[in-house]
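DUF2877 domain-containing protein
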Amino acid sequence: MNVVYPQKKSSYLGTFLHEPSVWYVHSLFKNGVNLSNGTDLLFIGTDKNGELPFAVHLSQFQLQNLIPKLRLNQAFTFQQNEWFSEDQTIRISLDFAIDFCSTGTVQPFFSSKRFTELMGKATLLTAFNGFECPLPDTKELTGYNQTFIHAFKQLQTNEEKEIESGLRYFIGRGKGETPSGDDLLVGLLSVDTAYPILSTKVRRMLMKLIMNENLTTDISNAYLKVALSHQFSTSINGLLKELTKNKTTTSEMGHFLTALSKTGHTSGLDTLTGMILGLFIKEKQVSEEEK
């Protein structure tokens, strides 16, 4: 029997990881595997893209030995703190996995100087996001089409019909397992967790849409679902915490920006796009409060 002992796991898993439960191999990638119980998704793989909110992380060596033994729809039972395959040839045990926290937190203050620093570094990232644009560098969103801009403005209202229309524009928009519009919404929600910037109706409407309609991929649905519960990758949470540091503190902003920008084909850049849009809203709110 092959026994794998992952190194760490998200503490958020406790909300949906119950014993006994049956899981199936949903999708396989170079850096991991997604298991599904029909409702929730669980990622088992490396932390190449940061520590993820619904993930169990193991080493590259462990992954290289595990992946060839897996197949799509293969069944696993989770019991006594481990998954084991139907034929008992594979076990993935959490006995030695250390918890990490993926919960985003409300930040104590917003540093305009740090935001200016972030924007300066972000403009050096010349790759285009999934909307075929560079990262936004002004509140006017120069280079973005008017439909995109209008949908973003709709998310800033308090009107349910407007909010729904804006969300429908972004949900599922784009290619891949995590379409660009969904990644953008995850980034926007991360800023809303750190600095509440949106009407609470946005989260309620988004939950209603993803739970009642089939608007995007299973994987994107999982990311949106955990984002609505204030759960994000450590790269996202780390970048937001950088905005609260004083000037004399060593900055890791460049590290987190680079880590996010290299996630997926455009996934990280799309997430950064949503984060920057959210920070534009926060900066505007701060400016109005200071008047």
